[in-house]
Amino acid sequence: MIQRNEKEVDIFTHPKFQEAQAIKKLVSSCGDGYIKAFSYGSIGDDKKLTLYFEHPAITHEFTIKHEQNLQKMRDIYKKEKMVGVLFFKKVEAKTLNKFKINQNKKLKDNRYAEKSSGEFAINCKSERIRSLFKDIQEIIKDKKVEK
């Protein structure tokens, strides 16, 4: 209990807390993937429920499956009798964080310096495989000479 102006307030019965819990229940009815990426929801003056997700892929998926998700939300809304707690006319999904991909960033060169000198024994009996190893040996020797 929180005391404010000599009056006790139970935060669990506060309308905003109940609204937040109801929105969370609606999102969880759509599936586990949504609730894991769900951050919060709010109802604006235009009676639109806006759900904020952490990742754009989840937001996109929610938008694609909008009708299916709305039906699941309607079912839980009626089942849980949320009429007194929550009222909205439309639902939309938004992403909290915009992921920026830097196209100009140069990729790191992950190649390593060749340590072999190209001098190794080729002890295989197959001529085809022997020729492949000879080619590899020549490539290594040529790269050592270039440096």
What does this structure look like?
The chain has 147 residues and is α+β, with helices and mostly antiparallel strands. It folds into 2 domains: 94 residues, GMP Synthetase, Chain A, domain 3; 34 residues. Helix content is 44%, strand content 16%. It is built from 5 helices and 5 strands. It has a 3-stranded mixed β-sheet. A two-stranded antiparallel sheet has the order 1-2. Helix 1 crosses helix 4. The chain starts with a strand and ends with a helix. 13% of the residues are buried.
Structural class: alpha+beta
Helix proportion range: 40-55%
Give the CATH class of the largest domain: Alpha Beta
How would you sum up the major sheet?
A: 3 strands, mixed
Strand order within the widest beta sheet:
3-4-5
The SSE string, one letter per element, is: EEHHEEHHEH
Tally the beta strands.
5
Whole-number tally of structural domains: 2
Distance between the termini: 75 Å
Shape-level CATH architecture of the largest domain: 2-Layer Sandwich
Helical segment tally? 5
- List low-pLDDT spans: none
Gross geometry: rod-shaped
Classify the fold: give the CATH topology of the largest domain.
GMP Synthetase, Chain A, domain 3
Rg computed from alpha carbons, rounded to a whole number of angstroms: 31 Å
Q: Give the rounded overall mean pLDDT.
A: 81
Our estimate of the beta-strand percent is: 15-25%
What does this entry show, briefly?
This protein has helices spanning 15-30, 32-37, 56-64, 66-79, 127-146; strands at 2-4, 7-9, 38-43, 48-53, 90-95. With 147 residues, the protein is an alpha+beta fold.
